[in-house]
Design brief:
The chain is mainly α. It contains 15 helices and no strands. The longest helix has 37 residues.
């Protein structure tokens, strides 16, 4: 049955509005980054710049300039913190998800439901109590503890995805490994872990992408200028009497390159891992 023209019109209009609301701010930010500072106010912030201006990007990519040093330091801190989150998240979620998928123990269903329930608690709702506890214990401005707070926000989701992936592995594979004399540890490290490459890559990408854009947690828990992540260093382009809108917009565009590149390069692994870990086979 052919689609009605009204349905196709609704589809195209809805798609156009979705692209406008999702890509519109990015396009506007990109155009502002190509506009000289005085043109922003002289022309009243017009959409299209009168001429192509690359001075903001040259300044940010020049490591001898203060703006370039600030941006490079922020990128380095963000990459370090994201990699730290991957290590901690995989180390915590891998054994937990495997145990939930393979073993029956008292309280298993209750713990699983409690794990899912924690996903509805916004992370920023716990930041003030966390700040008080961290301040009392002397844990502020330590990236390892900030990474643990990061991971605690993502752990329920990645544990659930990995658990469903392990549950989809056929029982015959476990039985064959036990017949060959594998212990429980050998079965995990020699059989299951090599098969978990796609889901481990998917979870690593998710942890990296979710950690990269964090703002509230590092704002509260990290205070040293040399440890601030990319989302925080943008405030250095705002002075008491002036705001470098061009540098801020250019920094925002450059900060998107690393996660966007990873998402494009590994999109097939990301989609396949999410689909395999979304439902139990």
């Amino acid at each position: 049955m052919k689609e009605k023209w009204s349905e196709r019109l609704f589809y195209y209009v809805f798609s156009l509005l979705f692209l406008l609301f999702s890509l519109g701010p990015l396009l506007w930010c990109f155009l502002l980054s190509l506009t000289e500072e005085y043109e922003l106010f002289h022309r009243g912030g017009g959409l299209l710049p009168p001429s192509l201006y690359l001075g903001n990007y040259r300044e940010l990519l020049d490591h001898s300039q203060r703006a370039g040093q600030i941006l490079l330091q922020g990128i380095g801190n963000s990459v370090f913190l994201s990699l730290l989150c991957i290590f901690i998240g995989i180390f915590a979620a891998l054994p937990a998800s495997y145990a939930f998928s393979r073993y029956e123990f008292r309280g298993r269903i209750f713990v699983l439901r409690l794990l899912v329930l924690t996903t509805v608690i916004p992370a920023f709702a716990t930041l003030i109590p966390l700040y008080a506890v961290f301040s009392k214990l002397g844990l502020l401005d330590k990236r390892i503890w900030a990474a643990i707070v990061y991971v605690s926000s993502f752990l329920p989701l990645i544990t659930w995805i990995m658990m469903n992936y392990f549950s989809a592995i056929p029982d015959e594979l476990y039985d064959a490994a036990r017949v060959d004399g594998c212990t429980e540890g050998q079965l995990f490290f020699r059989v299951i872990l090599p098969l978990s490459g796609p889901i481990l890559l998917t979870v690593s990408l998710m942890l990296f992408l979710m950690s990269w854009g964090q703002f509230q947690i590092p704002l509260i828990l990290i205070s040293s200028p040399e440890k601030r992540v990319l989302t925080l260093v943008l405030s250095d382009f705002m002075g008491r009497n002036d705001v470098s809108y061009g540098l801020i917009c250019a920094s925002g565009i450059l900060s998107l390159l690393i996660p966007a590149l990873l998402a494009v390069l590994f999109r097939n692994f990301l989609l396949s891992g999410l689909m395999q870990g979304s439902v139990k086979g």
